[in-house]
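User: Predict the complex.
Assistant: Input components as received:
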Amino acid sequence: KQEVTQIPAALSVPEGENLVLNCSFTDSAIYNLQWFRQDPGKGLTSLLLIQSSQREQTSGRLNASLDKSSGRSTLYIAASQPGDSATYLCAVQAGTALIFGKGTTLSVSS
Amino acid sequence: DGGITQSPKYLFRKEGQNVTLSCEQNLNHDAMYWYRQDPGQGLRLIYYSQIVNDFQKGDIAEGYSVSREKKESFPLTVTSAQKNPTAFYLCASSIGRAAYEQYFGPGTRLTVT
């Protein structure tokens, strides 16, 4: 059964730091991996989608990588800002639906 | 604006009552999904539908029911048989059933007392 783990569970950094969020999954047979952002009490906002044939995707200050063979993905956030404070969720799609990790809660202080 | 709407944002019910959560999308997506989110846990799939008049159970379907009479609508009913219904419910949609990006609505927070 596919399991998704995100480390760390929480992270606090000062504004301007570059940071990396980690996601690991147990079964490499996936269609894609998605990174989401969730603000308190809100829905999920899709940040990046990496298809299984891709190695990375970039959007602005965000860069996500995928290593299927090792079952790992990282989300790199450059020059962090207080507005980046949120919970970041990683999810893999192996069948019809997504399998989610529990998320990393990021706090960026000014 | 294209997107997914869920209503209401907050819902309060007494134990033993059935309640229906609304999910509407105008993205012309074929597939729709319902997830449940509890504190400290990842999202878990309740039901999904790949096409009108067809739907499948997810990992935690017990105590829930759905219908898909229209492409744009996928309501979820939380029945009195659901043991722990208090949670945050999220609806999502995608173009197709697999390997496509999923888009999420704003969620409905259900509290049952």
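The two ends of chain B are 36 Å apart (CA to CA).
Let me know if you want any component modeled separately.
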